[in-house]
Structures are given as structure tokens and as C-alpha cells.
Amino acid sequence: MIVSEKMVAEAEVICQKTMAMPVLDMKYRVCVSKEHNLQIDVASPPSSAPSFGEVCVSETISTEISRFESVVSCTETINKAVMESSAIKFVPDIHSGSHTDIGARDSMDDEHIQIDDLSAHVGPLFKSPLPSAFYAVFDGHGGPEAASYVKRNAMKLFFEDADLPQRKDMDAVFFRELENSHRKAFLQADHALAHEHSVSSLCGTTALTALILGRHLLVANAGDCRAVLCRNGVAVDMSQDHKPTYLPERRRVEQLGGHIDDGYLNDLSVTRALGDWYLKLPLGSSSPLIAEPDVQQVMLTEDDEFLIIGCDGIWDVMSSQYAVSLVRRGLRRHDDPQQCARELVKEALRLNTTDNLTVIVVRLSSPSRVVECSPQRPRLRICSLSEEARSRLRSLLEGN
């Protein structure tokens, strides 16, 4: 990202005004390196002024600390401006891959949706000049019927019947309405399962969706599927596992009269799911088991490298950071999200997961191809010593 000379000049003026010191006649200049790292250069003080070290140990130390904090504050302000500018200019380069495996189970109850170009699928229902994509994973229990039903009807539930905001400007109001439409879609799917004769009331599914609009990411989750964003190599959880062991969920369940025994809500290991109407009170009533999702939104920047979306068969045996590190190494080797998804599943199987496995890897930017060279060891120079030199060395070593 390039910062204009005007921006740097303005920053210099701000800093100089903030840092005006009668004791030290110093100028602070903020510059941006090629790697986008901010740095503060301090010019040498005039010969008549005391050195920086002398001032720091003088009686004015508290004043100097205050002035130093002003420098930090100024730097943080410019850092924030640079990050916001980076977010505005960043446009994700979306490319995804997925992989599934039945694992140790007798049947495959997972389903997933993988759409790199949403506009091509929903057409006039969703008009956006920006890159758009939609992903989802569904982990069924009590049979595959609930997960299969939600997958088949996902486009209708999430885009046709969900009251998508029809605004030209993608501002804060737009994204608040978009979040509400996703919440409504989850509840509509839950209600549809209650009336669907092909799906037993003993059957249900967890659900996680991820919608990308330009540089905006929205993740909605009900259950223990998980979405993890890689930001400069660090795992950032975009969802919370809704398990009885998660204290806020346990409290919510117990306040509604639910009973948790040995980590299970009745016979379920999750506290939120679509379907499972044998455990829910009639429509309109508050049940311990709910379908309402948690929703998280984030503005993507060039620091965001990829997104991992997976069912709990992955997360039962590896942490978010473990998965991110594995995928990051893979993308830097071959830049293939599909192969990364296969490698994640293979690793989960190696770690003895006992569940079905489904994972989607969404690459948001091309990985760095810079090969880091390991520091060279100092070379040893082998030379021969004369007999006289060896004799003198021997005398020195023996203390003579």
C-alpha cells in the first residue's frame, strides 16, 4: 500500500506540534517503509542541548514520559489510518477447495455448500459488483435427512425468502440488515424442518454459513462447526462452538429449565441446532435447544490470508491454530486450497478423529512465495600449523 506524501507531511506536522519541547529541539519524522512498517526517526539534537539519555534521568523524567507517550499515540493514529486505507483498497482473490470423508462412522451425515461466485448462482436476487461468495457446512445427527434438506433449500432459505437488504450503499445499515436476514434464514430453516414430513423429529443438524461481499465477511453459526480466519499466520476464530461445556451456553440452557448431564443436553453434544423437534417446545416458545445463530462480521484486509470452515470432526482433534499453520504451509508450497483441504482431513484421520469429516479452505489472497533462507553457519577455515607453532601452542595450553 502507498501512503501519499501529503499524508506523511500532515503526520509530521501533527507530531511536531504534539512533541514541541523547550528542553529538546528535536524533530520527529514519520515515514513508511516499503514493507509498510511505520518508523519514527529522531534527528540529532543541537550541541547545546543535553542528550536524550541525560534528559531521561533528570528531574523532568515524568515530562519526558508524557512526551514519549505522545509519540506513541501519534504513531498508533497513523497505524490505524494505514490499516483502514489498506482495508478499503483490499479486494479478496477468492478461490476455494473442499474435502470430505466418512471417517469412523457407518454413514455420512455431513453436507456442505461451496460457491466462489455467488452472483452467478442467484443472479438478480443478489446484485453486487464486488466479488461475492457463499459457503456452508451442515453436520447432521439422528440421520442425514435434516442436513440434506437444508442444503437442498439453502438458496431459497438464505437468498430468496430471507429479505435481503436492497440498498445501493453497503454501509453500516446494510450490513445490520444483512445480519438480521441471516438470523431469519436460520430460524426459517428450523421451522421448515418442523413441518417437513420427510425429516424425522428425531433428526437435526448444526449449521455454519460464511458470506463474502467484497472485503466484508459475515459468519453465522448454530452448533459446533467452526470458521477460522488466518490473519498474518494467526488463527482468529469467527465462530463459537455451542457446546454444553461452554459456560455462557450452559447458563442459558439451565435458565430455560434444560438439564446438562456429563456434557450433553439430553442426548445432544450441542446446545444449538436446526431440527431436533422432539427436544423443542412448540413454535413460539423458548426452548433450551435453539436454532438462533451467533453472527460475527469483519472487514477483510491484506493481512487476511484464508478462511477454514469445518465440521467438528476436524476440531475434535486439532486446535484452530494447528489447522491454520498446516494450511498456511500447504498454500505456500503449492497454492492449492483443494489439496490443503485433503491434507487437513488426512491429518484429522491420523489424529484418530471418530466423526465424519468435512472442511472448506477459502483462499483470500495469493500466498507469499518468498523463500526464507536460513542463516549461513560461519565457515571453518582449516589450516596447518608448523612444528614450532604447535610447540608454542602446547606450551601455552600446559601453562608453561
TrEMBL record:
Q: Where is the PPM-type phosphatase domain?
A: 95-364
An example of a Pfam family matching this protein is PP2C
Keyword Nucleotide-binding annotated: no
InterPro entries named among the record's database cross-references: PP2C, PP2C_BS, PPM-type-like_dom_sf, PPM-type_phosphatase-like_dom
Q: Which UniProt keywords apply?
A: Hydrolase, Magnesium, Manganese, Metal-binding, Protein phosphatase
Q: Which metal ions or organic cofactors does this protein require, according to UniProt?
A: Mn(2+); Mg(2+)
Q: Which domain of life is it from?
A: Eukaryota
List the catalysed reactions: O-phospho-L-threonyl-[protein] + H2O = L-threonyl-[protein] + phosphate; O-phospho-L-seryl-[protein] + H2O = L-seryl-[protein] + phosphate
One cellular component (GO) term of this entry: cytoplasm
Q: What is its EC number?
A: 3.1.3.16
Molecular function (GO) terms for this protein are: metal ion binding; protein serine/threonine phosphatase activity
Q: Which residues form a coiled coil?
A: none
Task: State the family it belongs to.
Answer: Belongs to the PP2C family.
Name recorded for this polypeptide: protein-serine/threonine phosphatase
Task: Please give the organism.
Answer: Prunus avium (Cherry)
Q: Provide the taxonomic classification.
A: Eukaryota, Viridiplantae, Streptophyta, Embryophyta, Tracheophyta
